[in-house]
Inverse folding.
């Protein structure tokens, strides 16, 4: 979701990867990887920082919603 939002901001602001790099200080290769959905090298924290840097003054908030379809197995007790 964060990568998709980064791409949307790049598109909305008509930024190519080199311009995004000059605006944010992140490498152009990073933005290229995001555009190509090559996200293996990115942490959630880094994507959040990149998104915040693209939109100076923006606040990035991530909400995590956990739901379980089945109860977790109970650990066995050592006697």
């Amino acid at each position: 979701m964060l990568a998709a939002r980064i791409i949307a901001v790049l598109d909305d602001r008509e930024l190519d990867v080199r311009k995004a790099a000059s605006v944010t200080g992140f490498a152009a290769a990073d933005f290229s990887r995001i555009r190509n959905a090559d996200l293996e090298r990115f942490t959630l924290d880094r994507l959040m920082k990149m998104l915040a840097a693209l939109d100076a003054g923006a606040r990035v908030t991530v909400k995590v919603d956990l739901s379980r379809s089945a109860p977790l197995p109970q650990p066995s007790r050592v006697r």
In short: The helical segments are 2-12, 17-24, 28-35, 44-54. The radius of gyration is 18 Å. The chain is about 50% helix and 0% strand. The longest helix spans residues 2-12.
